[in-house]
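Dear colleague,

Following up on Tuesday's group meeting, I ran the structure prediction for the six-component complex that the binding team flagged. I've pasted the input sequences exactly as they went in, so you can double-check that nothing got truncated or mislabelled along the way. The structure tokens for the whole assembly follow below. Feel free to forward this to whoever is handling the docking comparison.

Inputs:
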Amino acid sequence: MFDFFFQLHPVIQGLAKGLAVIMVIFPLAGACSLAERKVSAWMQGRPGPNRAIVPWIAWIPFLGVFLQKLGVFHLMSDGGKLLFKEEPVPGHVNKFYFILAPALAIMPAFTTVAVVPFGAYFDAAGAAIPLVLANVDIGLLAVFAVSSLGIYSLILAGWASNSKYPFLGSIRASAQLISYELAMTMSVIPVFLWINAPGQPGTMSLAKAVEFQSLPGFWGGSWFIVLMPISALIFLISLFAETNRHPFDMAESESDLVGGFHTEYGAFKWSLFFVAEYSHMIIGSGVFVLLFLGGWNPLPWVPLSTAAQLLGITGLPLVVGVLSIVIFLAKVVAMIFFFMWVRWTVPRFRYDQIMKLGWQKLLPLSIANLLFYAIAIAVIQK
Amino acid sequence: MSQLPFDPLLLSIAAPLALALAIALGLPKRWSVLLAYGAFAIPVLMALHVWFHFGDVAKDHGYAFLTRYSTGLDGLGIGLKLGLNGISLPLFVLAALVGLAAGLYAIQSGAERLKIYLMLLLIMQGGLMGVFASVDVFFFYFFHELALIPTFIMVGVWGGRDRSYAAMKLTIYLTLGAMVSLLGLIMLYVKSGAQTFDLIALRDHLAAHPLGATLQHNIAGLLLFGLGVLVSLWPLHTWAPLGYGAAPSSAAMLHAGVLKKFGLYGLIQIALPLLPDGLAHWSHPLAWLAVIGNILIVGLITIAQRDLKQMIGYSSVMHMGYAFLGIAAGGIIGPGGVVLLMVAHGLSVALLFLLATAIYHRTQTFAMDEMGGLAQKTPVLAAFFVAATLASIGLPGFANFWGELAIFVALWKFSPLITALAVAGVVISAVYGLRSAARVFFGPSTEALAKVTAARPPADLGWPEKIPALILLAALLFVGFWPKSLTGPINAALTPAAAAPARVVPSAPSL
Amino acid sequence: MAQILFYAFALFTLACAVGVVVNKNAVNAAMCLLLALVGVAGLFVQLDAYLLAFLLLLVYAGAVVALFLFIVMLLDTKDTASRGFRKVSTFASVFALGLLATGVSAFALRGRLTTPNPNLAAAVGTDLKHYAYQLFTTYLLPVQVIGFLLLIAMLGVIVLSKRWEGLDDIK
Amino acid sequence: MTTATLNDYVLLSAVLFAIGFFGVLLRRNTLVIFMSLELMLVASTLALVAFSRFNGTMDGNVFVFFILTVAAAEVAVGLAIIVALFRKRHTVQVDELNTLKN
Amino acid sequence: MAVIPLERKPLTFAERTYLPQIASGLWTTFKHIFQPQVTLSYPEQRPAIPPGYRGVPTLVRDPNGREKCVSCQLCEFVCPPKAIRITPGEIPADQADRAHVEKAPQAFDIDMLRCIYCGLCQEVCPEEAIFLQNQYSLSGYTREEMVNHKDKLYELGGTLPDQHYKWDQKKTAAEHGNTH
Amino acid sequence: MNLEVVKLAAADNQWGAIFPELMLACLALALLGLEIVLPKKLHVYIPDFALSGLVGTLAGLLFNFRPATLGHDTFNGLLHHSEPGQVMRAFFLLVAILVCVLARVSLAKQKMPRIEFYHLVLIVTGAMMLLAQSNHFVMLFVALETVTIGFYILVSYFRTSTASLEAGLKYLVMGALSSGMLLFGIALLYGVAGNPDLPAHTASAMNFNALAQFLAANPHHFLASTGIVLVLAGVAFKIGAFPFQIWVPDVYQGAPTPVTAFLAVGSKAAGFAVLLILARDVFASYAWLVMPVLTAMAAATIVFGNLAALTQHNVKRLIGLSGVSHAGFLLLGVVASATVPMAQGAIYFYLFAYLIASFAVFGVMTHVAGANDSDQDLDHYAGLAKESPFLAAVLAIGLGSLAGIPPLAGFMGKLFIFISAFQGGARWLLALAAAGVVISIYYYFGWIKAAFFEQWTPPADTADPRPARTPVSFVSGLTLGSLALASVLLGFYQGPLGQWLTMK
């Protein structure tokens, strides 16, 4: 079906994949920003953006009004505005790094997408083939490694702005990122300990994690969030911190830092930071879904294959693939909703509280958790 | 062997050291002083005992009272082997006697921080006894250094004028000498192939496998240079007068009287039997150096001295010249004479230092120009000093005479010219010796002295000072009138026949 | 293809490394270091050591260089234009360059090793489990020691940077 | 996919090492000196990985783990010292750090 | 004063993890999604203006359609942000019904970019000529547009009933010999 | 990968073989634990706890001096347990004990956290012990770096003092440079020894035994030679040998005095333990390269150390530079050790003598030093003999031993080294060393002179520039006294130690 694709020159293949990523993530990030506005509106008893409409769509009955009420066109007008707005570059900044920083923010965010599987289909033999741009063994480690490079955009943006609030914001943000990386990494190790039972070739592939959540049986089919709730909790909290989301949005912290590291930015460069943040959110949610929420399996103890059998579409890989993508995306969307939900529920931490939480609570907890599961796995597999 | 239930040699080494250790660990002052009498007396008693029995005990290679103690370095051929032969015996006795005199003098001197002073002196004494009692070359060197260290400190702390500079100079020079001679000894040790520092074993080994000529020259060169510095061979002698001038009297007595003889003793005991060719190779330069440098130049410098203690120091440097001549002359008589001279000089120079300090206590000065006429007030002191001076000049009736005579006899064979020059040195020594006696004790009293004596009228030699002086003087006269008591064993040790067949050496299991 | 990639990465790495050394501005130097590390990571990938490549990014690029950048910015030290380098005479620099050239050419000429056929040697760096087994069996002791190393490093940083108060009462 | 030879890698790492070395010798800013030191370490890891790949043994690759850890610890301690020193002296230039002179 | 120490119950473990509280908070916010919206779709729906609302300051006329302001400039002096600027002018003698009023503003500008709606001008006005009424929506495309001139002010203010007719009484008094 | 193989490999980790190191590690962790658990009042006793733990470990080690693993490899060949290794273990434990004793005196004058210091000392000691027994480059590197990084922290521990921090930075830069060289050398050796196209190539190319075999089969390989030189350079830094000695005076001056002692004795000894293993066993077939390099290094080190020490007034710099010259003497022994079996024993003896003497001197230094730890001038010793004769005596004995004056232990050490050097044929080096000894007398004696001979008259107008001396407590008095006594006794009587050394 996709044979023609694989016959292309690898460079073209790579370009096509890259383009696909950009084409998907950019709008998705935009959609997230819209979702943020809508969700916050709903939670605050407001309708949210619901005005903008393209005239000829307005003529479509019902749908036009629905789309208008949903605020879809605000997204487009926002994008248009940001693209065509004047690009302010203050006179006191270090121009090179000032311009480089937003680009640096985007790069790791987009690169990580390559190793996150977003669906699966079954080949003739019944084996699940994950849909992923680059199915590398390193999987999760690659995500961590590349996303850790995102810190440079923060640092450089803050420093290049040559102004105190951005600098403070960038220092806070980067220290926070580094601090929570530890707990995050520690928290996922139990999952991979579980997956990499002795005697099998080792892997850190995310698709493998999903595969393990599709096994038959009570323990096999349960998602890792059931098996390892603490891990999931730590990962989730760290994820909030890593994406600089509320209640960890120290980087922005409007009340004390004006606008955080991007105070001096405006227009498209500013929007790039947000695209990066939202793509981090998307990918983080994706990883969380893959690791702890069963990936593309519709329900706990109901793997995709069973669902396909029930629906009678086992023989149609394309349909199964689309189904899996839909399931996966639904979960991701739910996660993103959760992000926003939390934003309007929990107040922002103080900076010292964040550091305390990261180093004194989560890190020991994740280590204890790791120890517990290491021992438990050793006992089980004895 | 001896009839004693213990090893007299070890005891004479250990007793002073043990007391020193006890003082270091905090023995009260009264006990320290009381025990110090004993600690200084024990070596003398032992030495006398050994001397009396030397003739009738069994000997191995000429060594009597042999014992060996392991210190854990048997693998290297190092062990504390004690014993005495005809050469070391007189010096052993000398060390004990001078040590006693110095010790007694120190106790009565009432020096500042007497305890520590005594401790250092005791270490010196123990080291000295060890130097002459050890048969092991390593320990021979080791004990020398042990005795040397307190000298530095005593000069530095209790010394007189320029003590800091003097101590520094003394240390550097002596360390240089010790280091070079150590290199020589190591070379000897390694190159002999015997893998031992045991002198007897080395002798046996080298008798069987003599060293090559070049090697002998090199080793002997190193030893001569190193030991030469220690014995104040001209032109590296400058530390000696300076050091003695600054040193407190007991330290000067022990060092000039006994410790300085280490170098000569080493040459006779080690270099002579082990490196005969090497020593012969260097004998002419050595002789010329000694006669021109030590005897004539230093002798003339001595005459020019105004400071009594410095003068004694220079005179001792000069007398060492005779000793070098004796070694250069070789044979039996030469070295034998040197041994005799060493004993005699040790006694006389110690006596001189003692008396010089006694004079200082009465005049508050060492400058001879400021003294005079002391003989009327202190006749006994004057008598002692004159006697000591005469002894050091080499008047017959004192031990020095026999030593110098033997050396001249041997030297005549070696080189008449040098002999002539050396004899001229005796005249020089007579000049400064007699002149100093005259200056200090006779003639009119100077104003400066008058002032001092007015403040504190000088008393004559009291018993605490008299006893050490008497011991030394008696020994001088004893040897002077009965040299045979020493020459017998010395000759026996120096004759090649001394290398008697080996006998089983009884050894104590371990220290 | 692979050859071209190698040369591209190699040249990139070297250029960035030179950038580290010659850049007067410490921030630029740090960024050059970052890029050089990315280049090395690319070379690691070509050597089939994916894990190490990503670890290099994770540890070095993600944390170490970030720390550098942090400190550079925090201290805000400006190398004045003429004083970026130690005062070295022309002679010394020529000598150093000569040394560099000699060393490298010696390596190039005399240090030639025959390249073992890479296909014969198993690509040992690819399988993650290899690393884990090695680390937890053969090299278990060094791993433990490294743990203590990290502990003392952490402790040391705390001692050196924390504001200590109330130290009077402990004796 | 390796077609570059072992020599290429060794030479590359040697040059990288040399560049780092000269950085240490020539620069005055302690921070840059430190970066150059890291370059040297990275050069060593590159050599190790290359050797490991071509020799077919794991030791080199595993060693890199240790090196990375050590380097991270070293940097942390070093920067802590530099910062503490900067607070006192307000400089990071090596030739201005001259408290210790006899 | 007696100090009563307040005994606080120590937090339970669950409380210390904050998770139950967070969960309940989440539940609260989640519930709000489904609660009816409390906002108005403004341009279409207008808020009900309560009595006593202080909107845009305006000038009013008396029921006879006469200008009440006598340009005493008290409001100009009292205005904290200095939003009011009055140019006083004589009243031409030919206006008979205002004959006793000496002055009227030639120009009366309120800069609405400055106005802070404090109401001091209304408070201070001796003539009860300036009122903050229920106008709340004021917009314009330029800065100039945001300055309300006299005619605009009167247009906004309209006429308010007046019980005093101060100047009429004054006029009557004057006509009656100016006695009190 | 087969599970059974893994189990076998894991079973080869004989933790019992490194029991002393484990003890230290646990002790170190226990210190931190105690700091958390104990009330602040009782924190005073934590150093005592560390000290008694160390003494216990040492006692245990001596009691079980010949464990079953002696002579075997453990941890899959990472460690090799040998008698010299046991001796070095005891050595490092002794060093740690003494450092802790000094630290109690020295830290009392500073407002710094205490417990962490002991923790660091314990960890560094454990790493040193492993270093001396390592048989594999990975182990060597890891242990070495643990030691080095520990020292970075320790050197800059008095962070309120600029000098300490500067010293730390200097040590850090030089240390990292040398680690880099060591590492590149290791990489080269690994690469060459594992190359399948060379004879006797080996799969475990970082193992010393395998490497030695490989080197023997390829005696003149260029890359291997380069690697060896680089590795030697890395080790030379630790011992402060000539081209890598430039950090020594500054770092010794700036570091806290106990750390200076630790550096001077512990770090140096660790370096020599490694150097002995490498030069004698591993690189034996490259003696054509190693020995000339070491010889040149030794000569330059002796000359530099002694000449540079002559002009010093700060005693810490002085003892640092004298330490450089001691490294030169020890290198002399290493050079000799290629051919003379006794040299190894001589080096160990020298190290022990150096330990005792150095710590005696450092102990006195900590008592004489004031709050400004890096400012310890010779003038501060004026009148010491009068005011505290005990300290002065210990100082004299320590310095005498360092200078190599009989009858002190230092002399015996020098003697053994000289004998073995002579047997090894290094004549000119030996002559140089003898000259060095004579020069060294000058500055050591200058120090003694300052303490003993100078009369101290306090200046009338200004305050006494000498810092207040710390009174000698019972523990430090006992320690210093026994060090001095040991220095003397070891000079007279070497006993079983001497037997062991000379039987080599």
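Residues 50-75 of chain C form the longest helix (26 residues).

Cheers,
M.
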